[in-house]
Amino acid sequence: MVVIGALYTAVLFLGVNNASTVQPVIAIERTVFYRERAAGMYSAIPYAMAQGLVEIPYIATQTIVYGVTTYFMINFERNLEKFLYYLLFMFLTFTYFTFYGMVAIGLTPSQQMAAVVSSAFYSLWNLLAGFLVPKPCPIAWTLQGLVGSQLGDVEDLIVGPAFQGTVKGFLKEELGIESSMIGIAAAVIFAVSLSFFLVFALSLKFLNFQKR
């Protein structure tokens, strides 16, 4: 449970940090976008694609630095497949948090309002992350993929007053985490990231909060 708690805390803290730090940048650049679109220079969808793609190198760098550092500190199994799964799920998680930060700006008139709305979502995601309450919010799927890929096949025994059995059995029975769900978790997280990006693109196309 210590490892799961550490992953849960790290995912939430770093993810919220990604979403929060991207918001002022998007808010400022949206003002420029309004001006250039009025001049016929920018189109919403290509602009949104550029905004999303430019974040990918930063997210990839963050993932590699964080993943290489923490994977061996946590002392996960020295297995290339599991290490790549770890990097994959961290990359997808950082991506959907970053895109969520962009969406919050896209759907609200100001950075301050986006921060207020985001804080409510962060609280909800924290509650339903799968660590406290097992519900299918984005962070729950992240934990499904991270924990399932690293510990879902571990047959070490757990002997305690509340549970007796293997680590694999504990994860399945108590948290609903299984190694067989890794592919589904990756697909769901990718879909969440794509959905956030599409909402951001559509918000630029159909919403205009510019004050005249």
Oligomer: single chain
Low-confidence stretches: none
Q: Total strand count, please?
A: 2
Globally, the shape reads elongated
Number of domains: 1
Give the radius of gyration.
19 Å
Kindly state the percentage of residues in helix: over 70%
Summarize the structure in words:
By secondary structure, this protein is mainly α. The protein is 75% helix and 3% strand. It has one domain (2-139, 193-206). It has helices spanning 2-38, 44-74, 80-106, 111-127, 138-151, 167-175, 182-206; strands spanning 157-159, 164-166. It has a two-stranded antiparallel ribbon with strand order 1-2. Helix 5 (138-151) runs antiparallel to helix 7 (182-206). The longest helix is centred in the first third of the chain and has 37 residues, at 2-38. The radius of gyration is 19 Å and the shape is elongated. The mean pLDDT is 89.
Summarize the structure in short.
The chain has 212 residues and is an all-alpha fold. The chain is built from seven helices and two strands, in the order αααααββαα. The chain has one domain.
For the structure shown, list the relevant keywords:
212 residues; 3% strand; mainly alpha; 7 helices
